[in-house]
Each structure stands twice: as C-alpha cells, then as structure tokens.
Write a structure and sequence with these properties.
Elements lengths: L6 H10 L8 H9 L6 E4 L7 H6 L4 E5 L2 H14 L5 E3 L11 E6 L10 H13 L1 E11 L10 E7 L5 E12 L4 E12 L2 E13 L3 H10 L2 E8 L14 E7 L3
Parallel strand pairs: 1-2, 1-4, 2-3, 4-5
Antiparallel strand pairs: 5-11, 6-7, 7-8, 8-9, 10-11
Length: about 250
C-alpha cells in the first residue's frame, strides 16, 4: 500500500470533510446501527467524521487508523466534545482486538484503499473473525464508473490563519487487470504567496463489481449479504448511483 495522509493531506481532509459532515452516510449508519447494543469498530477511522456523530448518538464505537496525523484530529475532536473513544494506530492487515464486535463499519469507500485482491480477501476474513456471532459488516464502495473518469483537478482551501492549501489531483494510470487506478496528489501550503511545504501522495484505489464483492464476502465466511444503492436500505443498486453499500452478517455459529 502507498503512504497516505501525511501532514498536509490530513489537514486538507479535515478542512474538506470535517467531523459531522454527511453525504447521506451519517444518517444511514445511525439508522442501521440504532439497535446495536454491542461495541462497534470503524477501521480507517480518519478524523472521526463518522465516529464522532455515532458516539454522540450513544453508540459504543472505537476505531483505528494507520495515519498518526488523522488520529490526532480524531482525538482532538473527541476531547473537545468530552467523548471517550478507544483509538489506536493499526493497519488493515494486522489489526487485532480481544473484543468481538457487534458491527464493523467502513463508510466512504475506505476499503478500496486495499489495492491487492488477495490482501483484501484476507482483511475480509479478519473482519469476519472479529465479529460476534450475528454481527454485521457494513462497507461502502464507490461504483466502477467513478474510477474511470480520469483527468486532472485543482482545488483550494483557505485556513483560519489566511493561508492557502491547494490539491492538484492528476490521474496517471488505470490497470484493468488489477482493477486499480493511480493518481498523483500534490498538496501545497502557501503563505503570502510563498510555498511553505509540499507533499506528493501516490494514491491508489481498487474498484469492485457488485457481484464480485458479494462473492468475496461469502468466501470470507459471511452467511448473508444485502446490497443497497445510494443509502436507501433495501433498494438494489442502479446505474448512476454514487455509492453502493454492502451489509454482511456473520453466522450465529
């Protein structure tokens, strides 16, 4: 996996997707988890955009992330709001808990950061093994079409101190065999017209077909798989949907 979310990347993420900002997913996860009476795990928790609202709803949620910078934003937000959350620096490939969770959630396509198919299958088995019997895994995936647009984009944000952050996103490679796209993300921090710092992130993502991912979940041991489009639970995905959600249940045995 490529390195992601250094100092500037995490700063830009936190400005662009602050805690509580919803794309329809915060409400969706609240509804799907409202009757969950056990602990919930959010891998790749990031800055807490999802975790904090769920904690404020009274749910017991903890999370991990491989980025110290992102975890720092999440920890600061929890402290500011007087929330207690078990946060740790771990990766998809080697995370470990003694707890067995009632639910594991991966909103916003974070599972697609795992770009090797074999590694992804192993992580799904790890999720399965960390769920209590009857526990649920909920995963959001971006549809294939969103990966194939290509091109270059430039975005900018003004910080509270009046500095400027810019992001140049350049698509450089699509591999149809591995089902991956590679982009160069150049982050720059400007102050009074002078460049203070820059970072280059080689950002790779993997896409999945709907049936392909459903089969991968069943191969990992999940007994039931339900697929929904655009955060409308129970409504099958359609062409043009911006997000596809998979809800898989570990068997009772």
């Amino acid at each position: 996996m490529h390195n992601r979310y250094g100092k500037l990347a995490a700063w830009v993420y936190n400005l662009d997707k602050p805690v509580g900002r919803s794309f329809g997913d915060v409400e969706f996860y609240r509804r799907r988890l409202e009757r969950c009476d056990g602990p919930i795990l959010e891998p790749a928790v990031g800055n807490g955009r999802m975790l904090v609202p769920l904690l404020e709803s009274g749910l017991r949620v903890e999370g991990f992330d491989s980025s110290d910078e992102m975890l720092a934003y999440c920890e600061a937000e929890c402290r500011q709001r007087g929330l207690e959350a078990g946060l740790s620096r771990q990766s998809f490939e080697d995370f470990s808990y003694e707890t067995r969770f009632s639910a594991i959630i991966l909103p916003a396509g974070s599972f697609q950061l795992i770009t090797d198919g074999t590694a992804a299958a192993a992580v799904l088995r790890r999720f399965h093994d960390h769920l209590a019997p009857g526990g649920r895994l909920i995963v959001d995936l971006d549809p294939i079409g969103s990966f194939l647009a290509g091109g270059t984009s430039v975005r900018s944000w003004v910080t509270g101190d009046g500095d400027l952050l810019t992001l140049n996103d350049q698509h450089v490679e699509t591999c149809y065999i591995a089902q991956t796209t590679l982009s160069h993300l150049r982050y720059e921090h400007w102050r009074e017209g002078s460049l203070v710092r820059s970072e280059l992130d080689l950002f790779k993502l993997r896409w999945w077909g709907v049936d392909e991912f459903s089969m991968a979940l069943r191969a990992a041991g999940f007994a039931e798989v339900e697929v929904s489009g655009n955060y409308e639970h129970g409504r099958a995905p359609r062409e043009g949907d911006a997000i596809i959600s998979f809800e898989a249940t570990r068997g009772a045995g």
